[in-house]
């Protein structure tokens, strides 16, 4: 076998873009969807580039139940 590319597909985001995405996500400035829209990629791509060891899962917004 010869001539094929080594290492699989190229990443959709550059190293700089991935770093920016990580920072925006960590600082809660943008949602994953907003970051994906900025770079023109699907959300799954952004999730693939986020560092799982550093990211803190976002807590869902708590809905306040008011009793009558």
From TrEMBL:
One Pfam entry name: HTH_7
UniProt domain Resolvase HTH: residue ranges: 8-47
Highest rank taxon of the organism: Bacteria
GO molecular function per UniProt: DNA binding; DNA strand exchange activity
InterPro entries linked: Homeodomain-like_sf, Resolvase_HTH_dom
SUPFAM superfamilies per the UniProt record, alphabetical: Homeodomain-like
Protein name: Resolvase HTH domain-containing protein
Origin organism lineage: Bacteria, Bacillati, Actinomycetota, Actinomycetes, Kitasatosporales
